[in-house]
Specification:
By secondary structure, the chain is α+β, with helices and mostly antiparallel strands. Helices cover 46% and strands 18% of the residues. The protein has a 6-stranded mixed beta sheet. The protein has a 3-stranded antiparallel beta sheet with strand order 4-7-6. It catalyses: L-arginyl-[protein] + NAD(+) = N(omega)-(ADP-D-ribosyl)-L-arginyl-[protein] + nicotinamide + H(+).
C-alpha cells in the first residue's frame, strides 16, 4: 500500500487533491432564490462556461498560444518546461486524458484556474478542455451499455468553511466544478481520506457516489487504458458534474462519509435553474455569451479581457 502512495504522490495526486465545489440549497431551489446574496452563482458559472467553451471552434494556433502562455507561467520550473516542450511536440486530441492524468502543468493549471475563476487561463486552455470532454464522451458512448448502476469514490480534503456548508445541505445539489477523478476502489479512496485527516486545517472527506447510466447522460470514462495512473481503477467525469447530497456521516472520528447520487437528466429543479441562467446570457457568439456571463458574475475585469480580445482581433479568432 505504501508503495502505491509513493507512486501516486499523495500531495498532488488526482484522487486526493482539493477540488472546487458549489452547492445549491433546497431553500434556493424551492424559492427560485437565484438573485439573493446567499445563492452560489458559481454553481451555474461552470455549467454555462463549459457549454460555451465547447461551442467555440478552435484552430491550429490554439496549442501554440497555450504553449507560449505556459512557458511564461513556468519560466522558473525546468521540469515543467521540459513537459511543455514534450506537449508541444507530441500532443494531439487522442492524448487529452493521458496528458490530464499526468502530474504536469496541465492538471494543476486547469484546476487552479477553474477554482479561482481565472478566465484568461481557462480561455487559453479552451481547446484542451474541449478535447478532454470529447474523449471522455467518446469512451462513455463506447462503454455505456456495459455497466449497470455503479458506486465510485473520492477521498480528499475540504476547506473547513466549504465542508460546513456541505454538512448542513442534505438534499441540496452539489456540483464539482472541474473534471472529476474518482475510483471504484473503496480501500484506496478511504486511505486518501484518512491521509487528508493529518492536516488540522481541512476536513477529511470520502465521497460515495451512486451513478445510474440509465437515468443520466453525464459522460464518464473508465480509464484502464488511458490514464497515467492505471492502478487507481480511475473513472473520470466531465467538467461540472452535478449530484444530490443524500447523507453526511462522521466515521470513527477519522473522516466524513458523504453520500451522493448523480442527478437524473429529468431533474426538474436543475433544468429550471439552468434554463433561467442560460436565458440571461443568450444571443451572440460563444465569446459574447462568456463575456456576458462574467458581467452577471460581477467579474468586470474578466469580462473586459474577453471584449478587448474580440475588438482587437479582426483578422484572428480570439483566444487561439
Amino acid at each position: 500500500m505504501e508503495q502505491i502512495f509513493q507512486a501516486i504522490k499523495f500531495d498532488s495526486g488526482h484522487i486526493g487533491s482539493l477540488t472546487s465545489i458549489s452547492i445549491l440549497t433546497k431553500k434556493d431551489i424551492e424559492k427560485k432564490n437565484y438573485e439573493s446574496n446567499e445563492f452560489d452563482k458559481a454553481f451555474m458559472y461552470t455549467q454555462l462556461l463549459k457549454e460555451n467553451l465547447l461551442d467555440i471552434e478552435y484552430d491550429y494556433k490554439a496549442k501554440t498560444k497555450l504553449v507560449e502562455y505556459c512557458r511564461i507561467k513556468y519560466a522558473d520550473a525546468d521540469y515543467q518546461l521540459s513537459l511543455i516542450d514534450e506537449f508541444e511536440l507530441e500532443y494531439n486530441k487522442e492524448l487529452a486524458i493521458e496528458w490530464y492524468t499526468k502530474e504536469s502543468f496541465l492538471y494543476s493549471m486547469m484546476n487552479r484556474a477553474l477554482r479561482s475563476q481565472d478566465i484568461e487561463t481557462i480561455m487559453k486552455m479552451g481547446f484542451f478542455i474541449l478535447d478532454l470532454h470529447k474523449q471522455i464522451e467518446k469512451i462513455y458512448n463506447e462503454q455505456k451499455n456495459q455497466h449497470e448502476i455503479i458506486t465510485v469514490y473520492r477521498g480528499q480534503s475540504m476547506l473547513l468553511d466549504e465542508f460546513e456548508k456541505l454538512k448542513t445541505s442534505i438534499g441540496a445539489l452539489l456540483s464539482f466544478n472541474n473534471f472529476l477523478s474518482t475510483s471504484i476502489d473503496l480501500n484506496i479512496s478511504t486511505q486518501f481520506a484518512i491521509r487528508a485527516a493529518e492536516n488540522p486545517k481541512v476536513n477529511a472527506v470520502l465521497f460515495e457516489m451512486i451513478v445510474d447510466p440509465k437515468i443520466s447522460s453525464v459522460p464518464l470514462a473508465f480509464l484502464a487504458e488511458n490514464s497515467s495512473y492505471k492502478y487507481e481503477n480511475e473513472i473520470l467525469f466531465s467538467m461540472h458534474t452535478v449530484f444530490r447530497i443524500i447523507d453526511v456521516q462522521h466515521i470513527q472520528d477519522q473522516y466524513w462519509l458523504v453520500n451522493l447520487n448523480l442527478t437524473s437528466d429529468h431533474d426538474q429543479a436543475l433544468k429550471t435553474l439552468t434554463d433561467h441562467f442560460r436565458k440571461e446570457i443568450e444571443g451572440g457568439t460563444p465569446l459574447d455569451r462568456i463575456g456576458h456571463l462574467m458581467l452577471k458574475m460581477g467579474e468586470f475585469n474578466q469580462a473586459e479581457k474577453i471584449y478587448d480580445a474580440q475588438l482587437n482581433s479582426e483578422n484572428e479568432k480570439p483566444w487561439r
